[in-house]
Amino acid sequence: MNLSSDPDRSGQPECSSRHGGRHKATSGVHFTVSVVLPAGGTGERTGLVTPKQFYMFLNRPLISYTIQAFERLSWIQHIVVVVAEESIALTRDIVQRFQHTKVRVVSGGATRHRSIFNGVQALDPGESAATPDVVIIHDAVRPFVEEDFLLEIAMAAKENGASGAIRPLVSTVIATTSEGYLDHSLERGKYRASEMPQGFLYGVIHQAYQKCSEFDFDFGTECLHLALQHTGTRAKLIEGPPTLWKVTYKRDLAAAESIIKETLCRSACVTSDGSKRARELGRCLQKVMASLDMELDVLPEPIGDASRLSKEWNFIKLFVNGSGLSEVEETVKALEAANRALLHPVVVVWVRLDTSDGMSVSETGAGHLPLMELASAAKLQNILLYGIHFLLSEEDAGFSEGSVKRLAELTYTLIHDRNALLAGQMLCA
Amino acid sequence: MNLSSDPDRSGQPECSSRHGGRHKATSGVHFTVSVVLPAGGTGERTGLVTPKQFYMFLNRPLISYTIQAFERLSWIQHIVVVVAEESIALTRDIVQRFQHTKVRVVSGGATRHRSIFNGVQALDPGESAATPDVVIIHDAVRPFVEEDFLLEIAMAAKENGASGAIRPLVSTVIATTSEGYLDHSLERGKYRASEMPQGFLYGVIHQAYQKCSEFDFDFGTECLHLALQHTGTRAKLIEGPPTLWKVTYKRDLAAAESIIKETLCRSACVTSDGSKRARELGRCLQKVMASLDMELDVLPEPIGDASRLSKEWNFIKLFVNGSGLSEVEETVKALEAANRALLHPVVVVWVRLDTSDGMSVSETGAGHLPLMELASAAKLQNILLYGIHFLLSEEDAGFSEGSVKRLAELTYTLIHDRNALLAGQMLCA
Questions:
Q1: B276 touches chain A (CB under 8 A)
Q2: Which is nearest to A312 in space by CA: A264, A253, A260?
Q3: How close B369 gets to chain A, by Cα (Å)?
């Protein structure tokens, strides 16, 4: 169960080659698990035209992040995404474009329950194969679910027939009179908010839906309730982390984006031109960046980052008194060849250290146009290239704390923000 | 009641000179209203060291935004901020630094109810003066409350004795068994989340607290419930907008910041050097920026923005084939003199349009060092200055759509992001 559960370190869906086998149990899950992701929302509450599951975060729709959160787990077999009829083509495009391999897209019903039931039925492959032991139901707009918690939900569903995530209530819940006055307030400690994911034995969720009424299908909101009512299965409730929250309002889009950005900027790979001075700068930078919570892996060689291509989202390339743009270009080409930026934009920061004292300011512009051109081409491959001209006076030969801090902060903000509109800019530190 | 309710357009707290008078009723509120803001939270749920009410957004702590949301309203008399003993000095510093004039800082109790009661008691000035008719209780960590809604709450409290904001439930609420299994789920339509603000006649909230038990003080969470229980006052419930939400988790900090930034980037004032070409660029820019939802006010004169200093948060200054940095400096000095950036950072974007065909790239660096110096000084006054070198070839004399779009997007991202780390940079469009 110690597979990497960090979606943002795995360049490709981790499990694309493994998901076919039943009971291969690389993870210790000795039963089969598949997923139903209802994604039929219209996004009314965000106040946006695009339904929130299709809203773009760093060039990728939210739903692809959620799919990825499941797809990377070897013990998840299939993911059925249930969307409105009119979104099927769009969803299939997304699945293809981001190379999702475990996904089947099916059409939803008029209500949430009808959609989920369609998804559950789609997991029944007919006589020639078996249905999964456990079905996890999750929302397409809750992208940050982690492996540990999914395992807990799956295990509890296997054992109890049903399981679900809960969270403490943030607000007091009150009952209102029909005239809009306070009737009574609930004792907060006795109640919980029911969240997603939920897990069910296939038979339990299938039977619950087969037995439930048209009224349940149209107005019911809680799958756990249907399982209790129609199959007598009492769900095990498990408290989940706050990151399980549902992207509901426009502000949640900013919150989700900030979480994705935070995850991508925790580390970077630094290469230098091999000179003593560049290596020294690398070490100084490493110290300051650590205080900004970014871990730098400083390599001695100019193109020593080849082996890091499959792991890192961020590259910093240091050059002293020379261009180095051709080495930057090599890195960009290697990233492109590895299809590295398929899931997240990769950042490359080209730092030109200039110690020629009294160098005319006009020199700072050199290299800008070629950088702009290279960055424009790289951007098409989701690689964001920025330049920093790090200008030091002779007196500052020892890298003063202030100057390295300026460089570090500028580098940090470029890597953290991943602002595509600034790609190709040559900044000054 | 048509006072501007947009916190982000009022440079200074709007009401600093008006708040003394009772019943002045510039707004049609014919009774007195004061506010209690409990701000004693420890921020455990955000996962941050700083309690969330003191977390900085664009150089200003969250609590100052919330204070400002009330202070700008002429019909609000006093604001009592209740903080933990150890935060009193910090809070007083904030009040002084951001020139809040209606605020009194008092020490809180061990629980939320004890703190609110302290705040309510602090509104009783003794025999020589009168207590307010209505008390509004709000959270320090809900900064986006608008005048219209506050008026509704105040009016309903005056009429009914108590009133409170509600929101629909986002998740189903469920009751759990003592072993952690589902007991039953509540019918979502019958319940609401109780939010803030709440309003009370002074007598009602004062009496409720005087009569309530030690248990209520220690474990009660709902003021409306205490009013019902101890004074028989049935609160009127009013559905509020989603922006009333409480900054609770770390992700909410990003959400709050994005809302503040969105509010600040809706418009900008453009001045040109008076040349035909610059005026033409201003008009082109205006069209493209409108598609990005930013309204540009294009003035014909180079320093015609003096009258806009008190209204705008963003300034764009266009210069053709010349520096213009001294005019930019004048604008910065005028903003400083007006103390314009007290509440929000002001952005100044200096655009140098260059049409000298075949100009050497080395030229693009000119003006960078003086810009950097000016920007460093301006940043200390919360003014963020950026430069854009807009390089056009002769063939592009007519401002092609693509080139203006590039300039517009770059300008937009600088204004929207308000990234202080990028101040002083000279970008290329």
A1: no
A2: A264
A3: 7
